[in-house]
Amino acid sequence: MLVLSAGLTDNGTGSDKATGMGELTCPGCGKQLDPQHHGELVCDGQVWCDACRLYDRRLLLPRPFADIVAWGQRLCAAFGLDPVEFQEAEPFPEDPNPYPHALKLLMAEAHHRDRIIVFFPPGLRLATLCHELAHLATGQDHTAGWARMFAEMTAWVKERLPEDTISRGIKVNLLGNQD
Ligand SMILES: [Zn+2]
Ligand SMILES: [Zn+2]
Fold it and tell me: Which of 8, 10, 27, 156 has its CA 20 to 30 A from that of 132?
């Protein structure tokens, strides 16, 4: 499950609880990074802190579901993953109690056993795709290994995306970081 917070936050559906503390250090400033607090990470080639790096705008732009699926299939082929099924969630109900706020911010969820990724409307972005695919690729929750895989996938996508006319990255932090 992925809830929008600093762009990319979720609860995951894996059971791996490795903390990864100490295994990840920002290459920009040397700060120790905790992948459990992945809203503070920027997984782009390497795993950076959010003070040193911003996600490329092209990774955060909303895209049609068909584009997300096409990129997902290319990533699976490039990274040698078993096929993954991509699904688009129904639009949110008008009054999605009991967690209306959380539901509105739900982005995607990966079902490890069935290899299905369900995208909610706010999650139709390449960064979300890479986040979830990295869970399936590693079989891990928010670990250092997952973060590195996520970073490799975003780098792969960026190399193949058309250039952005706006070169600056943007920062998405709608909820603040969840400590
Ligand atoms: Zn996740
Ligand atoms: Zn840093």
Answer: 27
